[in-house]
Amino acid sequence: MAYEKNRRRPPVEDDGTLIEGRNAVLETLRAGRAVDKVFVAEGAHIGDVAAEARRHRVPVVTCDRRKLDGMSPTGNHQGVIAQAAAQEYVSLDDIFRVAEERSEVPLIVVCDGIEDPHNLGAIIRSAETAGAHGVIIPKRRAVGLTAAVARSAAGALAYVGVHKANNLASTLDELKERGVWLFGAEADGTVGLYDAPFDRPTAIIIGSEGQGLSRLTRDKCDYIVSIPMRGRVNSLNASNAAAVLLFEALRRRTQGN
Length: 257
Fold this sequence. Notes:
Elements: E1 18-20, H1 22-30, E2 35-41, H2 47-55, E3 60-63, H3 65-71, E4 80-84, H4 92-101, E5 107-112, H5 117-129, E6 134-138, H6 147-153, E7 162-165, H7 168-177, E8 181-185, E9 191-192, E10 202-207, H8 215-220, E11 223-226, H9 238-255
Parallel strand pairs: 2-3, 5-6, 5-10, 6-7, 8-10, 8-11, 9-11
Antiparallel strand pairs: 1-4, 2-4
C-alpha cells in the first residue's frame, strides 16, 4: 500500500489557539486574524458572530454545548469558541515566489483532508527538510494550523509556508495552469515511486487518513504513485508516505536520475 488509512478521528480541541466568548471571538474575526473554525453551541444566540465568521469565509460548526465544555480551558465559552491558526497562512503566489527566488522547479505538498494534527505537522516538517516550497491544505474537513500541528512541525512552520485553499479542486486546477504536475499517493499506482518524473514542477498529494485521495482529487492527478513494499506490514501512515515521496523527489532533482 502507499500509506495506511487510519480511521481514528483526532479531537478538534487544541491548547494555545482557542479563543472563547462572544466578544473575544467577534473581535478576533474583525481584526482579520487567521481563524480555522468557529464552534457554536446549539441554541446559542450569537448570530452576529456567525455572520462575521461567514463574512470572512470561516467555517461555522454547530455542535452540542457539551463539546464546547470539553474544549474550553476556562469553562466560560458563552456558547462560542474560535480555533485560530498558530501561524498566518500564505498565498499560492507566495509559494511560487519562494521557488522562483531559489531558482528551483516548484515542489509542493498538497494534503487532501489530513485530520490528525500530528500527521500534518510531520508532513510540514518533512516538506521543509526536503526543500519543498510550500504546503497546501483545504479549508474544510481537515485540520488547520493548530498548536499541536506547530509542535509536531518542530519549527518548520518558520521556514515553509502553508496555503489554505478555499476550494481544493480549483486550487489543483490552478496548479495545473501554472505548469505543475499532480502526483497522488495511492496503493494502486499507475507509476512506481522510482519511475515517477519528480524532476518536473511537482505537487505531491497525500490523501486523508480515513479515505485516502478523494475521487475528485484522484481524477485530477497526472500520476498515481505507489510505494514499493516488501515487509509483512504492507502500509505506511500518511506522514511517512509523504516523507518517502518528498525525499525521492529530492534525490531525483539533486542526482538527475
